[in-house]
Structures are given as structure tokens and as C-alpha cells.
């Protein structure tokens, strides 16, 4: 297997398994470091928004204009961008409310919930959350894999951003499962496995999309990836960062993420 494919798959695997980091943080600490999470989630959103609009969208447009001409290329790029948003929005819509990975979880809050909620309900909550995150991570895996395949430096940036945003998802899975079962190992395994859907998404992208990958297909995929990542940033990362927020830390993180991404792209160019 070519090295670029192995790198793309490795980055996707790393990003997906970051749910295990969230699980470790939840199971090994008694409180949530809200300052860190607010900064980190804001940073992740900044990276994803900047790279989507400045780099990925532009690459998609260039590829489609080359293949289809200026007018049609521009139209298809915009259509692909919003199609990506609609795709991830539909996934969110059909996720059960009590299992939605966008629902904020804190270790200390769940500690209190243990007393207020029946253990079967906590087990159901954790299971639904794991299932929701598994479904939710498929398009993220495709986004990371295809980006890394086309541009490894870009793929690294996206993988880091998605890995950061997967940390709270690991908390969301592991904490209710731990309080429902009393088994840290089981809670960690479920959280860890929920992230495996990202490399599975990468494998599907490789098997299904690679045989058809030309300028048009690449442009459409990249436009959709840009839409997916902007939607995730606006619908998931920034709201979560604001809920964890202390004194505008999420916005500082957002600006920092954009600045780091901008600087890295300038240095690469």
C-alpha cells in the first residue's frame, strides 16, 4: 500500500481514537478542566473553519473549474459545500436526543446524576451516546482521510482539530457507562471503540471513492468536506466551547486556531 494512503489512514485512526483520551480524563479525574476544554474546542473550531474556507474550499473550486469551466465549476463547488452541511445536519437530526454527542457532559455533573438517575437510564444514555458518536464520526473519517490523501500537511491539521473535538465525546460516552456499570474498563472500551468509526469511514472512502477519484470527484468531495467541517465547528465545537467558557477563552482559542493554521499554511507555501 502506498505511503500516502498509510499516512492518511494513520491520521484518521489517530483522530478517531482521541475519544479514548476523553475517556481517560473522565475516569481518572474528579472534575472537568473547563478552561482547557474551552480553549481547545475553540482552537479546534478555528483550525477547521479557517482551513475549510481558505484552503479546502479553494482547492475544490480550482479542481472543479479546471474540469468543468469557470461558471459550472463555481456552481458545483457551492452546491457541494452546502450538500456537505446538509449531510452532516441530517445525521445529527436522526441521532436520539439523549445520545447526541453535542450534549455537554462534565465529570462532576454526572457524579450528581448518579444519585438522581436510575442506573438503567444511565446505561441507556451511555449506549445511545456511543452509537450516536459512531454514526457521527463516519463523515469525519472520510474528511480526514481524503484531505490527508490530497495534501498530507492539510490532513495533519484536520486530524489534530478533529482529535481535539473528539475528547469531549469520549467523556460523553464513558462517564454514564461507568456510573451505570461501575466498570471503568468497560466504559473505556466503549468510548475507545466509538472512535473507530472514523478509520472505518476512511476505509470505505478508499474502497468506494478511490476508483472514481478524478478532478470532478475530488472537487466535489473537498467542497463537501469543507461544508461538513464548517457545520461541525458552528453547530458543535463553538457552542460546546462557550458552555465550558470562562472569560472569552473559547474566542481566544478560535482566533489562536485560525492564526496557527494561517501561519502553518504560509510556512508550507
TrEMBL record:
GO terms for cellular component: plasma membrane. It is a multi-pass membrane protein. Its main location: membrane. This is Zinc transporter ZupT. Belongs to the ZIP transporter (TC 2.A.5) family. ZupT subfamily. Zn(2+) binds at residues 140, 165, 169. It is found in: Cell membrane. The gene is zupT. Pfam families: Zip (PF02535). The chain crosses the membrane at residues 36-58, 70-91, 154-180, 187-210, 216-237, 249-268. Fe(2+) binds at residues 137, 140, 166, 169, 198. The keyword Metal-binding applies. GO terms for molecular function: metal ion binding; zinc ion transmembrane transporter activity. Mediates zinc uptake. May also transport other divalent cations. Keywords: Cell membrane, Ion transport, Iron, Membrane, Metal-binding, Transmembrane, Transmembrane helix, Transport, Zinc, Zinc transport. HAMAP family: ZupT (MF_00548). It catalyses: Zn(2+)(in) = Zn(2+)(out). The keyword RNA-binding does not apply.
